[in-house]
Each structure stands twice: as C-alpha cells, then as structure tokens.
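User: Quick sanity check before I run a bigger batch. Here is a single chain. Can you write out its predicted 3D structure?
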Amino acid sequence: MLRSLLRCLFALCLLGLTPWLHAAPPPPEIPAAAQAVPLDPVAATNAWLATVPAERRAKTDAYYEGGYWLQGLSALVGVASAWLLMATGISRRLRDAAERTTRRRTLQVALYALGALALLSLLGLPLEIYSGYFREHQYGLSNQTFGAWFGEALIDVALTLLLGALALVVIYAVIRRAPRTWWLWGACVTVAFTLFGSFIYPPFIAPLFNRYEPVQDARVRDEVLSLARAHGVPAEEVYQFNASKQHKRISANVAGFAGTMRIALNDNLLNRASLPEVRMVMAHEIGHYVLNHGLKATMFQIPLFVAMFAFAGWVLARVQARYALRDAADVAGFPVLLAAFTAFQLVASPLFLNITRMQEIEADRFGLAASREPDAFAAVALKLGEYRKLEPGPVEEVLFYTHPSGRKRVEMAMRFKAEMQREARAPAAVASAPGR
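Assistant: Done. Predicted structure follows.
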C-alpha cells in the first residue's frame, strides 16, 4: 500500500509508460473483414476480437477483475496499518525517540519518517509478496525468481524511505509555517514533488532496476528518431532496457523533461514486435510528450490534491485529542494523514483515472495519425488482452481503467483505416470525373 501511495507522486512522469504485449515479430495476420474495401469498422472490430481464444480471454478477465478486489484490499491494509501505529502508541513512541536523539525539528521528522515508513512497509509486505510475485506467476506474467523479485522490492523500500522522508520533512515544515492553510500548500508541495520525480526518474531511478543502452537495431532507431524529429521531440538517441528479466510485458516510454528526457523501449518490444507495431507504439508515446500530457495531468489534478489534503486535515482535527496529538504539526499524526490520503484516493480514483484515460485516447489518436498503422494498432490493442480485460462494461471502464478498453482501441483503429481508404479513393474519383 505505502509504496503504491508513494508511486502516485511519480505516476505522471511515467504517463507515457504504456505496456504492450505481442505474440511474434512478424506482422499480424489481418482478418478478412479488416481487409475489406470499403471497410465496415464494426465488422472489422468484431473480426479482430474473434481472433483471441476464449480461454485466453477468460484468464485475462479473471486476472484483471481480481485486481479490482486487490485495489480495495490494499487500501484496507494501508488504513489498518496506519490505525495500528496510532492505536498502539507506536507512532508517538517513534516521535519521542526522534526528539530524544536530536533537537533539530527537521532531523526529528526525518528520523521519525524512516522508522514509521519502515514499519508500514513491513506491515504491507505480505500483500506485496502475494500481489507482486505469487499472483503474477499464477497468471504467467512474471519472469523473476523470488530472490530477484525480493531484491528489487528492497530497492523499492529504500526509495520509499529516502523519498518519503524527504517529502515528510517538507510537508511538516509547511504545516509548522502555515498552520491554518497547510492543506493548500501541502497540495502544492505534492505537485512540486511530482514534477521533481519526473525530472529525476530517467537518470537516477530507472537504472536501479534495469540496464539502459542505445538501441542496436538501426531500423528501429531510425524509425523512432524520424518520428521524433517530425514532431519536434529533442532526442538524438533511443535506448533499450532489459525488462525481460522481470516480466513478459512489452513497453516503451518518453519520460522526463528538460535535460533528462529520454526515449526508451524495452527488450520485449524489440524482440517480439514487428516494425509496424514498434512504430505505432512509439508514435503513441511520442504523442504523450508532444501533447505535454505529464504537465497537463499534474495541473488537472491540482484540485484533487487540494481536496485530498483538505480531507486529511479535517480527519486529523477530529482525531487529534483521541490520539494525544499536540497539533497538526505533530509528526506522530502522520499515520492519520496517510490513512486519509489512502481512503480519499480509493474513493476519488475514478476521477484520477478519467484524466489519464482521456489523455491515453488523445495519444492513441496522435499515434494513428503519425504512424498510419491501424492494423498494427489493432494487433497491439488485442495483445494487451494478456493482462487487461478487452471488453469491460461501461461502468467498469469508468471505475477501473487507465486506458480505453481493447474493443474501443480496435474500433478506433478500424475507423481510422476506413478513413484512410476514403482518402485513397478520393484522388481517383476526382481524376475520373467528367471533364478531367
């Protein structure tokens, strides 16, 4: 739970990090209905979806639907862990120990944060092991041994301690200096921390988990750099990273900004995708960068961050006496804030997801226009079905989806293809018109 909460501060810098799954390097076999001229987009979409075996769809649906319950369970574990630290007095004892160690408020907060975050990580570890290791192996999505997975989990915890302590030092400094309006300035700190995360992620965090090196395939490099140049992306190199050591998902991203912007593809994409599919995936990712989705999403979410901090402040004020907290600036009250943040994010998740989903739709449209590879896009959208339900209900999609559903993506691609056919026929019709 705790690591998931901290990752939300970096989620926007990874907005372009979209998983894509593929079956084989050759271009996919296009269903007959998707080759018809003129094309019926609905019939073509149904033909593409019919190529996915029923047993595979059933397995994917079970995996993805189980994630709904897992999301709620993670929030419950997070709230329960925070309550345990408060109800047993552990949080106050950690604060007292920090105050005995040093008289500097900043160091007191940092020491408390290290202890509290470590305990919360430990309490959440059983669920992390199940969701991150055993469940992924159960559905055939992970390549890691337990030792390799646990080693990366330890790195993740270390980042949680370091960056979480830094965030708490800043937030509690804000609370001390603005005791009445700290919830407003706390939201601003969250935005600043998110942007800071997007800046440091490519050069400092990503290499802790994967090895990055220039793409060796000249065809891929030239295709991607051509797309980047055509749309004003300031990139001179394309990197690949060894995600296959962790999982089977194929991914790419255009992450960072200013001097840390980097275009990267994972080795699963390079080894298992056809060139048209790579081109479409990268056009989508470049679309995120060109459309400035990271910064826009941050700005769109500012009201939600403000509401989240205001709700946390309201909760803290009502339990302050019960847990013998001195005031809002008492760091021993951090578990209360964490529980409030977790509950708010669970309830408001459809609003956060809607922002991301709308931007994914925009990037899909950009990718189709830039790559002009509708069949590759349809194939990629279907292969997402190895871990994402292809045809959710409308309410299900609104509540749980960060991306448009597989059906909607395939239909978008087929409608684009139908328009490409009309474009191709238009010049011929003009040339054959009477008087030409």
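Residues 334-371 form the longest helix (38 residues).

User: Great, the batch can go ahead then.
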